[in-house]
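Might you be able to review the protein record set out just below?
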Amino acid sequence: MKNLLLTFALIFTTLVSFSQDSQKTITVTIDNVNNDKGTVKMALNTADTFMKGKPIMSAQSAIKDGKVTITFENVEPGEYAIIAYHDVNENNKMDFSDNGMPLESYGMSNNSMSFGPPQYDEAKFKVEDKNVELNIRF
């Protein structure tokens, strides 16, 4: 009986360690935030969630000396895009002027700055066999 329990424990431990190895981290740094007021919010998205609804993961950080670093943990390998914005007034939404232009700083992975709303194909990146480090510019 002890051998059977030991065998099950060994198999379970092995399975857990294999599943954890496939998960990676994405660390995002923004170092050009205009001021330290409010927070920076980030959303990790797939093609299915980008600009359409609830992201895969989201996080926020206080700003110190115009810089934030946020880490998304336990990310499965795949294709993703990140959108970030500076929520200066902490109302938990991106503010726009009457003509539709953003009033708060924003950026996305790959630092594409095209006219119009962000596009997934311009922001996408892959998580494969290594942890990912990104720098987003506002």
About this structure: The first strand starts at residue 24 and ends at 30. The CA atoms of residues 89 and 136 lie 21 Å apart. Residues 2-8 have pLDDT under 50 and may be disordered.
